[in-house]
Amino acid sequence: CSSDLQTMSVMLTSPAEALVGFEHEPHSSEEIERVEHAKQRLQSLDWVTFYQKSGFLRRNMPIAVSPQSINVAFLVPESEDESDEHDHHEEEHHEDVHFEFKVTAALSNDLEVRISGISADLFSYFDGLDKLHVTVILDGQQVHRVLSPDHNHMNW
Fold first, then answer.
1. Which among 11, 22, 45, 153 could bridge 135 via Cys, Cβ 3.0 to 4.6 Å?
2. What is the pLDDT of residue 94?
3. Which is nearest to 114 in space by CA: 48, 68, 58?
4. What is each CA distance from 140 to 7, 135, 143, in whole angstroms?
5. What does the pLDDT read at residue 133?
6. Which of residues 95 and 31 earns the better pLDDT score?
């Protein structure tokens, strides 16, 4: 029964440079392959763990969540594209565009289990990744953090 589930949204953004080594539109077959590989890795969600506080010491215990939908995009950030005052038909404009990866996932879990944190282990998959912007929306509350290899966990 869907009323026994709580839903949450997780959004993550990272500059393309950090995941594939370049920020422009892919041109060569190698660049296209790198983008596809990164998309597959991000789509799997095996790099993210959700937690609940449990027990007397309120330790973080991993919990299972079910993906409802996952979207992985390789795109130009909206603010960068919209704030550009140059004519969009100029060739040099395209060299200044910086692509990013954006993951949007809708997830659910049993209402009896109270999600209290998330960790992102994406840093172990991508050597160039040094920060990750993560936003979680749960129970009408939004939490945003910038995670790093040394601080890859967020609680709320």
1. 11
2. 53
3. 58
4. 10, 13, 10
5. 96
6. 31
Beta bridge partners of 151: none
Please report, to the nearest 10 degrees, the dihedral formed by the alpha carbons of residues 50, 41, 150, 53 taken in order: 0
For 149, half-sphere exposure in the C-beta direction (CA atoms, 13 angstrom radius) is 9
**Residues 34-49: what's their mean pLDDT?**
95
The secondary structure of residue 123, as a DSSP letter, is G
Phi, psi of 41 (to 5 degrees): -60, -45
CA-wise closest residue to 104 among 143, 153, 74, 69: 69
The answer to whether residue 89 scores a pLDDT higher than 70 is no
Q: Are 104 and 9 in contact (CB under 8 A)?
A: yes
pTM: predicted TM-score of the whole model, two decimal places: 0.82
Long-range contacts of 132-137 (CB under 8 A, 24+ apart): 132/12, 132/13, 132/14, 133/12, 133/13, 133/14, 134/10, 134/11, 134/12, 135/9, 135/10, 135/11, 135/12, 136/8, 136/9, 136/10, 136/11, 137/8, 137/9, 137/10, 137/11
